[in-house]
Amino acid sequence: MRTNEQRVLDLVYTDSPKIGVCMRSANLLVDEKLSEKGMSDDLLAEIETFLAAHFLLQNPEIRKKNGYELEKYKEGLKNTNYGQQAMMMDKSNTLKFLNKNNGFEFKVI
Fold first, then answer.
1. CA–CA separation, 65 vs 103, rounded Å?
2. How far apart are alpha carbons 46 and 85 in whole angstroms?
């Protein structure tokens, strides 16, 4: 994992144990989609941190505690400023492509 709990907490306050799940999801996404795109480990760590913050804010309780509202009419990574930052940092534009083409699949288990 490239990020850590404190780096994510610097962006989004939470005492929720869900932070670990969000960090693992961000790590998996970066490993699977971005690690072979020629970006430095430092940049990948930043992207992973912003993705974890984005994933945390998908939880209504965490959003409320942070006084955060999702951007209306925007889907996927575009509905938080952290998701938008992750896309902006991705030099390969992979995240933009996945977001635009509904390349993200979320399943409720």
1. 29
2. 9
d(CA 53, CA 55): 5
Q: Coil, helix or strand for 91?
A: coil
Count of alpha carbons within 13 Å of 97, Cβ hemisphere only?
7
CB neighbours of 6 closer than 8 A, spacing ≥ 6?
none
What's 70's DSSP letter? P
> Is 64 in contact with 70 (CB distance < 8 Å)?
no
Give 41-59 as a DSSP string.
HHHHHHHHHHHHHHHHTTS
pLDDT in single tens digits along all 109 residues of the chain: 999 999 999 999 999 899 999 999 999 999 999 999 999 999 999 999 999 999 999 999 998 898 888 877 788 899 999 999 999 999 999 999 998 876 555 445 4
Domain ranges of the chain: 5-100
Predicted TM-score of the model (pTM) = 0.89
